[in-house]
Amino acid sequence: MVSDHLYQADEGEACKRARMRTREHKKKKKAEYTTGEEAAAKKASRSFKKYQYRGVELDQLLDLSNEDFIELVHARARRRFQRGLKRRPMGLIKKLRQSKKDAGANEKPAMVKTHLRDMIIVPEMIGSVVGVYNGKTFTTVEVKPEMTGHYLGEFSITYKPVGHSRGANMKDSRFVPLK
């Protein structure tokens, strides 16, 4: 029994020493990154992934004509554009252009409310704020480059997701047969 007790004490000492080593290592590592030049160099070396939509970069995507953009989108959207945009979708795009123009250089444009859940997001809409009707309220959607080619309705959920009760409540709701 005595040997077991000594073994446990030695194990405790080893754990303490290991913890001390990791603390010292963390302090040393933290001290390495605190120099201003190295931190700036590390920040500058970090590169962000450029957004591409089907192989076309964002700045080129914004410059594309409607015909060139139609060739990039999926078949359902291509069919929709080839049949021509009607009055309402064109009116939405016109309002979005106007709200972007009215906004300052570094501020978000005013929200444009719409019921057009079936409107396909085109590059011209990027940066706009759209209020998409979900049947009850208008959900604010800020159009980002990744949304290109999707429908507005995909970003405004029409139902409230079910939050089923958790395990703690299961005892109360469990069926108990009467005898």
Give structural notes.
This is 40S ribosomal protein S15. It holds the Pfam family Ribosomal_S19. Residues 17-30 have a biased composition (Basic residues). Helices cover 46% and strands 9% of the residues. By secondary structure, it is mainly alpha-helical. It has a domain at 52-155: Ribosomal protein S19/S15 (30s Ribosomal Protein S19, Chain A, 2-Layer Sandwich). The longest helix has 32 residues, at 2-33. The protein is flat.
Strand fraction: 5-15%
The biggest beta sheet is recorded as: 3 strands, mixed
Number of helices: 7
Q: Could you give the order of strands across the largest sheet?
A: 3-4-5
CATH C-level category of the domain at 52-155: Alpha Beta
Give the overall average pLDDT. 81
Global morphology? flat
Structural class: mainly alpha
Distance between the termini: 55 Å
Tell how many strands the DSSP assignment holds. Answer: 5
Order of helices and strands: HHEEHHHHEEEH
Under CATH, the homologous superfamily of the domain at 52-155 reads Ribosomal protein S19/S15
The low-pLDDT segments are none
Radius of gyration, in Å, reads: 29 Å
Give the proportion of residues in helices. 40-55%
State the CATH architecture of the domain at 52-155.
2-Layer Sandwich
CATH fold naming of the domain at 52-155: 30s Ribosomal Protein S19, Chain A
